[in-house]
Amino acid sequence: MAEAGKDSSLIEGSGRNGSFGRTTSSVEGSSLRRRSSSLSRTLSFQPEYGGVESDNVSEAGDIGDRALHSSSRFSEDGGSVRRLSLEIALEGGVAFPIPEDDAKSPVYPLPEEGGAVLAPRSTEPMIGSKEEKEDSWRLPPLFEYVSCLLYLAVFGILGVLTRYLLQKLFGPGIARVTSDSSPLYLDLPSNMVGSFLMGWWGVVFKPRISSVSDHLAIGLTTGYLGSLTTFSGWNQKMLDLVVDGEWVYAVSGFLIGLFLAAYSIKLGVGTAKCFQLATQRLNCGHCNWTVNTWRRHLAVMIVLVLMLGLLWTLSGTLLSKEFSSTEAQLWIACIVAAPGVWIRWFLARLNGRGLGQSGILKWVPFGTLIANISAACIMAGLATVKKAVDTKNCNTIATGVQFGFLGCLSTVSTFMAEYHAMEESSKFWRAYLYGLVTILAAFALGILIYAVPVWSRGYS
C-alpha cells in the first residue's frame, strides 16, 4: 500500500507539472519503469509470420495501393507493428513506457488487483506533440497515386533492361550458363538476383527505405524487383521444353528454379541482417534525408517524369530505326512495361483480403496469384499466335509484349517474399501448397493454351 501511494503521488505530480519530480528516489523510478516497460509490450504485435498473425503472410510481398493508406508501420527487424490509438490503450488499461529522461507525456500504470486505473490530469502534451502533427501530414490521394505510378513505371523499365542484360550475360552468347534447351532457363539468373535483392530491400531494409520515402520502397520492390523477375517467362520456357518432348527437363526446370529462388531470398535476408548488424555496431548507415515535404515530392516527381520521358523517347526512336533487328523486341518491351507493373500493383491490393465477406483463406495472396497465372496464360496464348502466324513482324511484336508487359505483370520476387514468409511461419506447409498451386495451375493452363494447339495442328 505504501508503494502504491508513492506511485500515485508520482503520477499526480507529473500531471500538475508535466514532468516527474527530481526528488523521487531512483529505486522507485526504476521499479515503475520496469513495470511500465513490461506492460508496453502489449502495444505491439509480434512479427506477423507466426502464431495467430500467420494469416498476414500473404501481405509480406506487396499490398498494392493499400500501402498508401495503411496505418501499419515497419519495425526495425522487418516485422509489421501496428499503432494503437490512445482510446484503445486507455480502455484496455495499458501502461505506456516511461522514458529515462524527462517525460512530457502522462503515464498510466496498471492497477493493482481490485484497484482502479488512474486517469491523467491532462493529455495536451501527448495530443499536441510535434511528432503527431508531422505524422498526420499527408499528400492528397491523387498526388500520391501519380507519384507511385511514376516510380513504378521508371523502375519497371529499369528492371526490364536489367533482365535483358542478365539474359545476354549468362546466356549462350557469353557465359553459356543458361539456354532455351535446358532446365537452366534464360530468366533464371534474373529471378535469383531479384529474389536475393528482395531479401535486402523488401524484407530487412524496407523499414529504412520507407523512412526515406514510402514511394521509393514501392518503386524498388514492386517496380524494379517485380520487373527484374518474371514468372510467366519461366513458365513459358518450361512449356517450350514440353512441346519439344523434354518432360524431364521441364519438371527439373521448375524444381531447380523454385529451389534456387527460395534459397536466394534466404541468402539475401541473412546477408542483409549481417550487414545491418555491422552498420549498427559501426554507428553508420543512417540517412536523415526524407521526402516529407511538398517541395521534395515535387522535385522527385519532376525528375521521374523526365526520366520516363527520356526512356520512352529513346525506346521509340531506336524501335523505329531497328525494327527489323532483334533489338526491336527490347524497345517494345520498354514501351509496354509500365502498364504491366501498374496492373500488378493494383492486383496486389487483393493480398490479405481473403474470399467473401468473412475473408476466408486470408493467407493466400490472391493478387499475386492472379497476376502470375493470368500473365502465364496470356504469354502462352501469344506463343500460340506466333506459331500460327509465323511472320517476322508478328514475332517481334509478340516477343516484345511477352518480355515487357507480361514479364512485368508477373513476378518471382514478390512470389518468393510470400513463400519465404509462409515457410518461416508456424504453418510452414502453406508455402509448399502455395508454390505447388501456382506452378501447377499456370503449367496446366499453359499446356491447354499452347501445347495442345501446337501438337494438334502440327506447328513447327
From TrEMBL:
Which cell locations does it reside in?
Cell membrane
Which keywords appear in this protein's UniProt record, sorted alphabetically? Cell membrane, Membrane, Transmembrane, Transmembrane helix
In the UniProt record, does the keyword Cell membrane occur?
yes
Q: Which InterPro entries match?
A: FluC
Q: Fetch the Pfam families from UniProt.
A: CRCB (PF02537)
Transmembrane stretches, start-end: 142-164, 184-204, 216-235, 247-265, 298-318, 330-348, 360-385, 397-419, 431-452
Q: Which N-terminal residues, if any, form the signal peptide?
A: none
Feature: compositional bias, Polar residues: 20-29
Gene Ontology CC entries for this record = plasma membrane
Which family is this protein grouped under? Belongs to the fluoride channel Fluc/FEX (TC 1.A.43) family.
Q: What protein am I looking at?
A: Camphor resistance CrcB family protein
